[in-house]
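Many introductory courses stop at the sequence. We go one step further.
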Amino acid sequence: MNEPISIEKEITEPGHVHDCCQNHTQRVLAIRDAVELLGGKWKIQIIGTLLFRGKRRFMDLLREVDGIAAKMLSKELQDLEVNQLIKRTVLNTKPVTVEYEITEYGKSLEPLLRTLVDWGVEHRKRIMTRGNQN
């Protein structure tokens, strides 16, 4: 009889790095985790700004992420920092200045964001073309 493999064993054992993803339930959980972390109106925009434009101060982000309120930006930045996707640096200036930048771990999202950009451009073309045909 086969020994049940725990998810921890599947992830950490050599040769089993992605075996957890063979299981549909685990795939769905992984998708849910990613969507919960990156979902919402603002997080992808904040990550994209920091990833593609580099370090930004709070006020820069407030201007560049169109429509976000300061309180919401602060909350989203804290959440991204807790999840190690961005780094917050307090500069020794008067008045105190805070900079945000993407972490190495956050940079792992670049292929995903580039894919989203490509898909978004194609989707917009498709919808605009379809809209013009009506």
